[in-house]
Amino acid sequence: METTFVVEEVGSCSLVWLQSKDGTNRLHKACVEKLTDAVRQAARKTCAALIMTGNDRFFSMGADLAEISALNAVEAYEFSRIGQELMSAIDEFPAPTYAAISGFCMGGGLDIVLACRYRIASPHSIFGHRGAALGLMTGWGGTQRLPRLIGKGRALGMFVTAAKITAQEALRIGLIDAIADHPVGESLKRAAR
């Protein structure tokens, strides 16, 4: 099931909705490549903000593990490279970037969130980098961005234990900037300031 997305123009903001048939918004290679193109296209327009979001239950469960397990070493390197290109496109976006998070935000989904400048989550959001529990480590820049955001010790703890943390804990440690019942609406409101 290939994750797709829809880009919606709301006022002067570009709103990217991750979507998949099963609702988990897993990040397949083709989706990551198309997302990178969409972010780069939005960067060429006059845009007040880029807002990345998912649905009420899943921001994104991250990379598709079935796809990853079938990769050889060369393909895995390429998958890592294209993921890094997406994160760089978000990180270098010429206007403010927001992650509007609801539900589960795991692995590569968390990498997207970390590449955004502002992170606003619903009260029921859950965050984690579960790769260690599966014998994997992110290759999309999360190992650099997370320690800069929450400190080396906390980041190492999240990576090594594959712990899941709540929105309240994420706010306490500085992983997110705010909790809001409607993260997309709050992001749009902040972008309009």
Describe the structure.
It is a single chain. This protein is of the alpha/beta class and 193 residues long. Helix content is 43%, strand content 22%. It is built from 8 helices and 10 strands. Strands 1-2-3-5-7-10 form a 6-stranded mixed sheet, sandwiched between helices. It has a 4-stranded mixed sheet with strand order 4-6-8-9. Helix 1 runs parallel beside helix 3. The protein starts with a strand and ends with a helix. The model has no long low-confidence stretch (mean pLDDT 92).
Key descriptive features of the protein:
single chain; 22% strand; 193 residues; 4-stranded mixed beta sheet; 6-stranded mixed beta sheet; 8 helices; 10 strands; alpha/beta
Describe how the helices and strands are arranged.
Layout: E1 4-10, E2 13-19, H1 29-44, E3 49-53, E4 58-60, H2 65-69, H3 73-91, E5 97-101, E6 104-106, H4 108-115, E7 118-121, E8 126-128, H5 142-150, H6 152-161, E9 164-166, H7 167-173, E10 178-179, H8 183-191
Parallel strand pairs: 2-3, 3-5, 4-6, 5-7, 6-8, 7-10
Antiparallel strand pairs: 1-2, 8-9
